[in-house]
Amino acid sequence: MRDALVGVGRAVRLVLLIALALLFLIPFYLLVRNGLSSEADITSPGWTFFPSELHWSNVREVFDDPNVPMAHALLNSSLIAVLTTVGTLLPASLAGYGLARIPYAYADVVFYWILGALMVPAAVTFVPSFVLVSTLGWVSTLRGLVVPTLFSAVAAFIFRQYFLGFPRELEDAARVDGLGYWRTYWRVVVPNSRPVFAAVGTIVFIGAWNSFLWPLVIGQDRDAWTVQVALSTFTTAQTVNIHELFVAAAVSILPLLVVFLVLQRYIVAGVERTGIDD
Amino acid sequence: MRGTYRRRLLGPQNRHLWFWIFVGPFVLGLTLFTYVPLAWSAYLSFFDAHNTVSPTDFVGLDNYTAMLGDDAFTDSLVTFLVFTALIVPATYVLSLGLALMVNRLRWAQAFFRSVFFLPVACSYVVAALIWKISIFNGVRFGLANTVLDWFGADQIAWLSTTEPPWYWLVIVTVRLWLQAGFYMVLFLAGLQRISPRLYEAAAVDGARPGWQVFRHITFPQLRATSVAVVLLLVINAFQAFDEFYNLLSDARGYPPYARPPLVYLYYTALGQGQNLGLGSAGAVILALIIAVVTVVQARWFGLGRKED
């Protein structure tokens, strides 16, 4: 009797899981469905789950459309995401290591200075940051889009927590071999810390690729548009074809899905490792 | 001679120097791009700064009184409160539920975890596009209205109906879809840290698997994770911008309802008129509110206190 009940419970749970999984996947399906439909199929009052025929030529059409600077926006987004990722990992990991391992009388003060910035929500500072960037003359430039976002207190914090737990024996061996802090860091610590770099790197990459408010504020010229800004501009305009918009959106998430599927276990590990739930 | 000098300066015994070589660049950048803008913002908020970043007219607290007396600003705070009251419990329940169901799966766990985590890779802009044009379109070609049609219900203009405020359903579901997977992973991490011995002890004591075990073992053990999740949810809700902006604004501009604080600030500081002084005052007020909410919440939940 009891076994039967447990069996029923398990079946109910599985059905619920499958239903939820389908719900979670529907938006992705709609993205592809609309991207490959004709305009008439998308706006037809008799909406159907499957389009009447697939238009693969839509993909070419987006890149040929002079009104949609998709290729340029993709290039901008790629440059920004890669530069942001590399540029965030370097200073944050060095700072995290210094804080975790180099004894210094005022290390606590410096750490609280960084923690304080962690409390400042980045989105709230967009007005003053815009003021700063425009004073520097960086509006609509790659520098303006990338440099102000590089100093992530969260990244430095994660690196510090990670390096605190790094096995000291490895560093002691390097010390015996006569290596200083600098060479110990590059030759021993970094090569043995790839997972944390991968985890922080993918999180930063996804954040940079998907970020919207900052590129919207700083990338004012059409030439400086990222994929997100370009898509948003077309959603609020009335001139663009809907099917092209959906192809562009689908193309915009492809790089992330690849990064995501390849590095998924690092992302999950990184999320778990942030230490926020301890 | 030079060699000894170099060694004395750069040797590992010179810890102050090495500390600053490692930490200095980061602290400098952080100061320049976080603290300087903050300080500048505080300074600008006391000036009349239309279209300029080097203002000359000191106006004292006028920007602050103008901001706090402005219905649009106080309405934006109400919008935030409503949004938080909807999104925080919804995300909490869904992500915890997903984690509990996925955690106990013997097979296909990786598959389900991936499916629920996948939207994290999607941007708010793309998700808002799908929600606005494909699912909750006000005319008939949207998925939601098609489904309503199957049941013989009337069509709904989702994003422009304010009585009842159907737009909340659109705004909340988009964020729920995007973020539930992330918090599910946090809960999964928390669940894996619970000692199996506790469950064994509960079984010995005759606790029925299911609700009783959840209530007396799982839920209390997840307390630290829960506190962090709620804290993050509230802070993230405060920073809502992308989905509101993309779902509601169109070629005609932004509707008068459902403007959360950041959307309001965006239009004040960078819209027509570029009132940077007023915008800065708003940013300072908002930062203060977030700081207070964070501290109060952390105190309330006893975050940082050692677990006994």
UniProtKB/TrEMBL annotation, chain A:
Signal peptide: none annotated. It comes from the Bacteria. Keywords: Cell membrane, Membrane, Transmembrane, Transmembrane helix, Transport. The keyword Transferase does not apply. It is found in: Cell membrane. The keyword Transport applies. The chain crosses the membrane at residues 12-32, 73-97, 109-132, 138-159, 196-217, 245-263. Gene3D superfamilies: MetI-like. It is a multi-pass membrane protein. InterPro entries: MetI-like, MetI-like_sf. Pfam families: BPD_transp_1. Residues 74-263 form the ABC transmembrane type-1 domain. Belongs to the binding-protein-dependent transport system permease family. This is Carbohydrate ABC transporter permease.
TrEMBL record, chain B:
It is found in: Cell membrane. It holds the Pfam family BPD_transp_1. The keyword Cell cycle does not apply. It is a multi-pass membrane protein. The chain crosses the membrane at residues 17-38, 77-102, 114-133, 166-189, 222-241, 276-296. Residues 77-297 form the ABC transmembrane type-1 domain. The keyword Membrane applies. Keywords: Cell membrane, Membrane, Transmembrane, Transmembrane helix, Transport. InterPro entries: ABC_transporter_permease, MetI-like, MetI-like_sf. It comes from the Bacteria. Belongs to the binding-protein-dependent transport system permease family. This is Sugar ABC transporter permease. It comes from Streptomyces luomodiensis.
